[in-house]
Write a structure and sequence with these properties.
five-stranded mixed β-sheet; 235 residues; alpha/beta
Length: 235
């Protein structure tokens, strides 16, 4: 059986969500077995400091995790967060095992569903980085981040609440109001939940009449499909 390596802890709540979703997705297809998973849990606070101030050190921190996973015998790996994809190209070039990109699978789903203009929510690093606009741009899809003030608000709620496992009703309502404004002001036809804690707060497939792209769900589906494909190929 093939084994997936998970770079986890970025943050803890989403790592738990990934684990549960992978098991549930596998169970729906084959209730007689369970997937082979190795999780290496990192320090989200350290990762946030590095993404802010030292991207080369962030790359090395993530590569060390990938080396541990490779040493454990995994066949491929995935990171349970969007923000670390800020150095995804560097990781791909140096990783001993293939990586499944959350950004690529999101862009492919956006193309499949015919979206043309997407709002992007996540940490400030994700909202301000080029990786979503560049990848989605290959499919002719525009990515629109919130304005400066809204980005600061989203980031503060993300780091101050969601990464700590706090999912509050008042925060949920504020996010819904933000999506409504993005719909009216930016004319978006979809929204990327570009932080893997966001689906834990915003679970509805449509928010303020705007369809969502749940990056956790899309990433998990790609991971399970890869696990099954690699397992079948090895038999």
């Amino acid at each position: 059986m093939a084994t997936v390596g998970i770079v986890g802890g970025l943050g803890p709540e989403s790592t738990i969500d990934y684990y549960r979703r992978i098991l549930a997705a596998w169970e729906r297809e084959d209730s007689t077995t369970a997937p082979s998973i190795v999780i290496d849990s990192l320090d989200v606070r350290r990762a946030l400091r590095l993404v802010e101030s030292d991207r080369p050190a962030l790359t090395e921190y993530l590569l060390a995790s990938l080396r541990r996973l490779a040493g454990a015998g995994v066949d491929f790996a995935a990171m349970t967060a969007n923000t670390p994809h800020i150095v995804f190209d560097e990781l791909m070039a140096r990783s001993a095992v293939p990586l499944v990109s959350i950004v690529e699978v999101c862009a492919e789903e956006a193309r499949r569903r015919g979206f043309r203009r997407l709002a992007l929510l996540g940490t400030r690093f994700t909202m301000e980085a080029p990786f979503y606009p560049v990848v989605c741009g290959r499919y002719g899809i525009a990515v629109v981040p919130p304005n400066d003030a809204d980005r600061a608000w989203v980031h503060e709620r993300y780091v101050g609440q969601l990464l700590k496992g706090e999912f509050r009703d008042d925060t949920r309502q504020e996010f819904i109001s933000l999506v409504r404004r993005l719909r009216d002001e930016q004319r978006v036809d979809g929204i990327i939940l570009g932080g893997t804690e966001l689906p834990l707060l915003l679970s509805a497939p449509v928010i303020a009449d705007v369809p969502t792209l749940d990056t956790t769900a899309l990433h998990v589906a790609a991971i399970v499909a890869r696990l099954r494909s690699d397992t079948a190929a090895s038999c």
